[in-house]
Specification:
369 residues, alpha/beta, 9 strands
């Protein structure tokens, strides 16, 4: 295998450690980061809330390919949850997450073509918010970062404190870690736009890298919240990506008008919902559509017509409602099927020139994601 930049530099600077350090103390992590900086090591950073799945691992693998050292944070940030959201029940799987990271670190140690996981940051809320106790109220006290209008549309309209909390915790993490590159998944497309805007507006010296969504075989985007679904709701959950793909097919076939494009998605959603409503309560999984959006890929403003030279971002959110009548022994998922599970997803409607080139290249390959 040809030597990559991390590998070439490693040969000069010596062998890498076999595992990573776990830090919950900010000064200690900063010292490690300063040592890496003085040694000329590039650092990639993957912020997570734990409950790691293959989507997170894809981000870390990408970071390992592009950096000599990789830092991962595991922290469930309270300020991005509304007062009636699922902060208290969010999966806490720290030990299994660390075990998975150790296996990945061992794989990287045995592969001289990639960098290494050197630090896992597991801070406390007192450490991350040392001043006024942070609030989840819209007008609550605390020191926050707000990125408007991006944070007040789409997801922000349904979850008014979400992006305020995301931007705030990411600003803190970027200040602590000072990474060369940070890695986010395309599944949370609006989040990546908010972070990119924050990095640009506040002159943060890092590069935001967006990694394609990792999906299950049936198309469902991987998410830490999928553990809440259980078998019944899990079977219905891919309806969102099927709806978005129907709109993309209409776009590829030449339609650019908003009403026609969104009607293709709505037809899929309506058909599945009617199918579920026709089932007995012990067998169905009902859902509500929060939104389906057709937006400009730069501003996320809603479009009446897609310009072929620009393309668009197609996104949506549905709420999988609590299971009505669970039967004995049913796999209802974490929480017993009593909570609403909100699922989000998106696809890019590519500019026509890029789309034609990609279709030509992948004429005999799998369907486009």
């Amino acid at each position: 295998m040809a030597a990559t930049l991390p590998n070439l530099i490693r040969r000069v600077s010596g062998p890498k450690p076999r595992s990573f350090q776990v830090f919950n103390n900010i000064p200690n992590l900063r010292k490690a980061r300063r040592d890496a900086m003085l040694a000329g090591k590039s650092v990639g950073f993957v912020p997570t809330m734990g409950a790691l799945h293959d989507g997170h691992i894809a981000l870390i693998r990408q970071a390992l390919e592009e950096n000599q050292q990789v830092y991962v944070s595991i922290y469930v940030n309270p300020t991005q949850f509304g007062v009636k959201e699922d902060f208290s029940s969010y999966p806490n799987t720290l030990q299994s997450d660390l075990a998975r990271l150790r296996r990945l670190a061992a794989d990287a140690w045995n592969d001289e073509s990639v960098g290494q996981i050197t630090a896992v940051f597991t801070p406390t809320t007192k450490g991350m918010y040392p001043g006024v106790k942070p609030s989840s109220e819209v007008d609550g006290p605390g020191s926050f970062v707000t990125i408007t209008p991006l944070s007040s549309i789409l997801e922000g309209a349904s979850r008014p404190v979400f992006f305020r909390g995301v931007a705030t915790v990411c600003m803190k993490l970027f200040n602590i870690v000072q990474p060369d590159k940070v890695y986010f998944g395309q599944k949370d497309i609006q989040q990546t736009c908010v972070i990119q805007r924050m990095v640009y507006d506040f002159h943060i010296n890092t590069q935001v890298m967006v990694v394609p969504t990792v999906r299950e075989q049936d198309g469902l985007a991987m998410s830490s919240r999928n553990v809440y679904l259980g078998r019944r709701r899990r079977r219905v959950a891919p309806v969102l990506i099927r709806a978005l793909r129907a709109t993309r097919k209409a776009f590829i076939n030449g339609r650019t008008e908003r009403d026609h494009l969104l009607a293709a998605a709505q037809e899929v959603l309506d058909e599945e919902l009617e199918k579920q409503k026709a089932l007995p309560a012990q067998g169905r999984a009902l859902f509500e559509v929060d939104y389906i959006s057709l937006a400009d890929p730069f501003s996320l403003k809603e479009l009446d017509n897609v310009k072929l030279e620009h393309g668009a971002v197609l996104s949506g959110a549905i709420k999988m409602l609590p299971i009505e009548e669970p039967f004995e022994g049913e796999d209802t998922g974490m929480g017993g099927g009593t909570t609403t599970v909100r699922l989000i997803d998106n696809l890019r409607l590519e500019p026509m020139k890029s789309l034609i080139q990609r279709l030509q290249y992948r004429a005999s390959a799998a369907p486009l994601e």
